[in-house]
């Protein structure tokens, strides 16, 4: 529709309608910490969103048409005119603003005085004197287009009307008129047979052009055939093909369209591959309605098209065509099999469309051919409508005598696709005069839900057209879930809506630019089904609301559990009222460790369990449990702070009506409902709308009084059930006005230094975020506002389709934040400096002390280690094979001290070892020979005995005293058996296997004993071993 060109898109956050001049002030809200918050999402009732950036932003006083004039560079618009109806067009001539549309009266606003004037669809506003005047009696129908000819001082009017009121009916044929010299005059051709939507000047011919849906003039002189407008097949139209020639001059499908080819000059025809069907395709940047096709064959004797059909892309419908057979000169009709002649005297054939189809592309499918394959020589497409398509990159079509008209634009314009009408428009930002059927203007268009990736600098993601043509769709809840498998962020929305023609209802998941989901009802979406709340705990999605049906063959009633990771529904007993009908769940909250899930709403049972208003789901055993006794009614909000639960709503406790109740599950099973008040507000007399955990085991609640308009109350209820309202702001601060409604409260972390900035709670880097619809004393309405302990400031503005302020139901965040237990408290700067100094000194002293201690231990370990001398050897029995000169009573040295000396001797080695050995030898008895030292041979398996003594002799000696239970000595050896294998790893140790015989000769140490074993050749070998590895053998 061409008349949409008269509407300009304002990159202005919100319409300003103040009637006073004020100094411009740029506003920067507290910057949220994106690293701790992640993405933010907002759901509710709105059609557009804006971040708050200007301290003068506010809402329009009422919806409807209006005239707002920018007074100066402060971006303040003054409201001059208003009224009901629609304003379609305007233009300025001689300081006169002409307004036209579909309205009967306009109301002026001058010096706080208002007056209504009857104008009948057209009026004039004097921009110098700010006065309104009529154009005679007006027009008898809606006006869609105006053109001010300043040269001739003539106003041209177009629309869907018959004539000016009170004029001669025979002079006007309808749709157009002109205002000249303060009177209405007809056009020379009297009018058109259809509505006019645009009027513009043609500077090349110095003429005035009229555009609309008509094909004849009112005097009957001119009549336009419905197939005379050629469709531009040059850029930006995309020409492609299937199964075309792979290379060569005949492989380009765009060679058969102008300017490369005409029916009179074919140029290079486009050919298919030999003996295969294929297609030629044109895709347009906008929708068209083809009325006829002019097709030329290749004019090649060995390769040309014989039969074809034309398909409308998108709808996949075949065009029904009528053509004249060049051989028989008879009119024929075809759709799936149309025939094309290939004779030199037939340069082209015209195929007229019988069934009008709107399409964004056509495909000519070739089914059979003459010779070796098919092809085309030239293609032209015509449409019935004479339209102007707003595309800046569209080139002029000079391929026919009636060329495609084009016009140029002046200024900074860009193409914008309008969702809802699904058309392109040219838009610009013009800070001047704004007129039209103004209801609201926002920076971003989004219906019901939006997310932005950075909380500090919002970059919005808008969900265009997600609902099935339903302006009443509601989104109540949302959340983010990170899919670790695909490493993707998933946005989940819940409410009452349908998507993809009903394939998705009430629950939708958005990822990879694609929507998915499921139905909560077996037979399709129930208009009464509603999802009110969502919760994700470790990949398990909890869905609460009021619905009944099945999810993947799992019966659900008002409560559903869905595994996001496994994509399966989990069984859960339904939430119902006393009659078994679906109950209503309004809120779902987890316990601090996620092991329990609390639901609140208006219900009586969970499965067969009596569990009114509040119920607990145990995740580990998958069963419902009641919470306390005596509570009833409807729970609107629920807070879980450790073992303490706080609920708000229209409740009863022991049959007594209340608005708030608390219970500490660790100490009682009874709900408490009498908080003390230190302010003028009694919580039990308020309508409470929001509750959130607060520091120090308290909660923050928000509500409204019963007076009209309702006054908002927000304050803290501490652990002693004492309610205190938030501090009253100073006179220079912004505060909440009556009529505000808070739906959600949460703590959001801010970035930057909080030392010199007010924050709430004090000495933190957090502020309190309120979600809903707030009226602020110094900023007007806001959908999301922030409280820093001193003042309220707007954060996000929203509006609905009807121009009314939008309302947010919830804000959700990507990361685990925004709770009382996640608030970071900070000390004052002087305290931080003193603590830092103390920590630094403490670390310094600690390091010095550790260094001194290490040096002390090192010196202690490095003390002189003198080897213990070998004890004197005394024989106990004669040895076999010894001479008289030798010690006939030799026995191997077996004291632990001797072994340790031998180990030290082997370890030191070199000169030190020789010195120790020499010292030991000097202390030995004189009768000890060099061969005696052989008894202390150093090796990996203990110490070896002399060859003259066998292990059997030692064993026999131990067996001579079987009843002796005292300590083992050299004189009284004892026989033991190994319980476990022992692996000798150090010098002097004796390794052995399990059940091996051991002759123990020294048990003076509690841990290490000394003894002998057979080395495998019958000779004894000695060493140390753990005492618990051996035991006395059984008799």
TrEMBL record:
The chain crosses the membrane at residues 831-856. One of its GO terms (cellular component) is plasma membrane of growing cell tip. It comes from the Eukaryota. The keyword Transmembrane applies. Residues 918-938 are annotated as: Disordered. The keyword Cell inner membrane does not apply. It holds the Pfam family SH3_9. PROSITE patterns: SH3. Residues 1-23 form the signal peptide. Keywords: Membrane, SH3 domain, Signal, Transmembrane, Transmembrane helix. Residues 971-1035 form the SH3 domain. InterPro entries: Gal_Oxase/kelch_b-propeller, Rax2-like_C, Rax2-like_second, SH3-like_dom_sf, SH3_domain. Residues 923-933 have a biased composition (Basic and acidic residues). Gene3D superfamilies: SH3 Domains (2.30.30.40). PANTHER family: BUD SITE SELECTION PROTEIN RAX2. This is SH3 domain-containing protein.
């Amino acid at each position: 529709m061409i008349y949409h060109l008269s509407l300009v898109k304002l990159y202005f956050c919100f319409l300003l309608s103040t009637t006073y001049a004020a100094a411009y002030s740029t506003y920067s809200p507290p910057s949220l910490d994106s690293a701790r918050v992640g993405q933010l999402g907002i759901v509710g009732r709105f059609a557009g969103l804006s971040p708050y950036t200007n301290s003068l932003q506010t809402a329009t006083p009422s919806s409807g048409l209006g005239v707002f004039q920018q007074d100066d560079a402060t971006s303040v618009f003054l409201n001059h005119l208003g009224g009901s109806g629609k304003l379609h067009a305007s233009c300025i001539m001689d300081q006169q603003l002409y307004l036209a549309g579909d309205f009967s009266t306009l109301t002026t606003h001058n010096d706080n005085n208002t007056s209504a004037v009857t104008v009948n669809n057209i009026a004039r506003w004097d921009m110098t004197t700010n006065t309104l005047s009529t154009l005679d009696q007006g027009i008898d129908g809606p006006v869609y287009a105006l053109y001010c000819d300043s040269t001739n001082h003539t106003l041209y009017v177009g629309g869907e009307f018959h004539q000016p009121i009170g004029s001669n009916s025979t002079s006007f044929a309808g749709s157009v008129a002109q205002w000249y010299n303060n009177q209405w005059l007809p056009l020379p051709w009297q009018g058109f047979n259809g509505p006019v939507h645009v009027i513009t000047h043609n500077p090349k011919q110095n003429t005035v052009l009229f555009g609309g849906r008509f094909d004849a003039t009112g005097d009957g002189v001119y009549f336009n055939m419905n197939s005379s407008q050629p469709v531009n097949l040059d850029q930006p139209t995309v020409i492609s093909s299937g199964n075309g020639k792979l290379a060569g001059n005949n492989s380009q499908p765009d060679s058969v369209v102008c300017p490369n080819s005409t029916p009179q000059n074919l140029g290079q025809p486009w050919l298919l591959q030999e003996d295969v069907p294929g297609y030629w395709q044109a895709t347009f940047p906008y929708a068209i309605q083809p009325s006829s096709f002019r097709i030329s064959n290749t004019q090649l004797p060995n390769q040309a098209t014989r039969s074809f059909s034309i398909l409308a892309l998108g709808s996949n419908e075949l065009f029904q065509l009528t053509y004249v057979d060049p051989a028989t000169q008879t009119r024929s009709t075809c759709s799936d099999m149309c025939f094309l002649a290939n004779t030199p005297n037939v340069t082209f054939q015209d195929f007229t469309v019988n069934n009008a189809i709107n399409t964004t592309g056509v495909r000519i499918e070739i089914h059979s051919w003459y010779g070796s394959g098919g092809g085309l020589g030239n293609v032209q497409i015509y449409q019935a409508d004479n339209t102007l398509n707003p595309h800046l990159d569209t080139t002029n079509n000079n391929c026919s005598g009636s060329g495609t008209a084009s016009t140029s634009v002046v200024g900074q314009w860009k193409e914008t696709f309008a969702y809802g009408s699904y058309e392109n428009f040219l838009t610009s930002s013009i800070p001047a005069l704004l007129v039209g059927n103004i209801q609201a203007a926002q920076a971003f268009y989004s219906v019901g839900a939006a997310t932005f990736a950075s909380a500090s600098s919002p970059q919005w993601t808008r969900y265009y057209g997600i609902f099935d043509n339903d302006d009443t769709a509601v989104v109540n809840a949302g959340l983010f879930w990170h899919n670790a498998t695909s490493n993707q962020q998933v946005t989940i929305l819940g409410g009452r809506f349908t998507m993809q023609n009903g394939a998705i209802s009430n629950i939708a998941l958005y990822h990879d630019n694609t929507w998915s989901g499921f139905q909560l009802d077996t037979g399709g979406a129930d208009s009464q089904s509603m999802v009110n709340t969502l919760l994700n705990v470790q990949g398990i999605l909890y869905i609460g609301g009021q619905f009944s049906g099945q999810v993947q063959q799992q019966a659900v009633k008002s409560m559903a559990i869905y595994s996001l990771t496994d994509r399966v529904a989990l069984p859960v007993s339904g939430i119902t009222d006393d009659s078994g009908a679906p109950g209503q769940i309004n809120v779902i909250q987890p316990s601090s460790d996620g092991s329990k899930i609390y639901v609140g709403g208006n219900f009586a049972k969970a499965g067969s369990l009596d569990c009114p208003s509040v119920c607990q789901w145990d995740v580990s055993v998958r069963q419902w449990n009641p919470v306390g006794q005596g509570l009833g009614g409807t729970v609107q909000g629920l807070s879980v702070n450790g073992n303490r639960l706080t609920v708000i709503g229209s409740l009863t406790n022991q049959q007594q009506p209340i608005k708030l109740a608390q219970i500490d599950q660790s100490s009682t099973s009874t709900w408490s409902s009498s908080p003390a008040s230190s302010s003028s507000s009694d919580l039990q007399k308020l309508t409470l709308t929001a509750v959130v955990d607060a520091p120090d085991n308290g909660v923050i609640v928000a509500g409204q009084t019963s007076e009209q308009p309702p006054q908002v109350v927000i304050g803290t209820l501490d652990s002693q059930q004492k309610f205190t309202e938030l501090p009253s702001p100073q006179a220079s601060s912004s505060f909440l006005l009556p009529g505000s409604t808070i739906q959600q409260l949460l703590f959001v972390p801010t970035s930057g230094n909080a030392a010199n900035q007010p924050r709430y709670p004090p000495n933190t880097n957090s502020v309190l975020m309120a979600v809903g619809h707030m009226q602020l004393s110094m900023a007007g309405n806001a959908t999301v506002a922030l409280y820093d302990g001193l003042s309220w400031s707007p954060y996000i503005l929203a509006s609905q389709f009807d121009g009314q302020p939008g309302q947010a139901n919830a804000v959700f965040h990507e990361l685990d934040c925004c709770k009382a237990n996640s608030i970071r408290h900070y000390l004052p700067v002087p305290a931080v400096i003193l603590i830092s100094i103390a920590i630094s000194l403490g670390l310094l002293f600690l390091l010095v002390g550790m260094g001194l201690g290490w040096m002390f231990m090192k010196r202690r370990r490095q003390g002189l280690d003198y080897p213990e001398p070998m004890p004197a050897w005394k024989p106990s029995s004669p040895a076999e094979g010894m001479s008289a000169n030798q010690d006939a009573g030799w026995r191997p040295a077996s004291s632990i001290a001797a072994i340790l000396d031998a180990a030290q001797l082997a370890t030191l080695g070199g000169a030190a070892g020789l010195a120790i050995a020499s010292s030991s030898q000097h202390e030995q008895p004189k009768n000890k020979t060099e061969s005696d030292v052989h008894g202390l041979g150093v090796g990996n398996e203990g110490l070896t005995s002399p060859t003259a003594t066998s292990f059997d002799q030692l064993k026999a000696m131990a067996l001579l005293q079987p009843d002796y239970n005292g300590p083992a000595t050299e004189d009284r050896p004892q026989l033991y058996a190994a319980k476990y294998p022992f692996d000798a790893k150090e010098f002097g140790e004796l390794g052995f296997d399990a059940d091996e015989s051991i002759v123990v000769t020294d048990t003076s140490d509690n841990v290490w004993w000394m003894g002998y074993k057979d080395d495998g050749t019958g000779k004894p070998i000695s060493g140390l071993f753990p005492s618990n590895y051996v035991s006395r053998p059984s008799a």
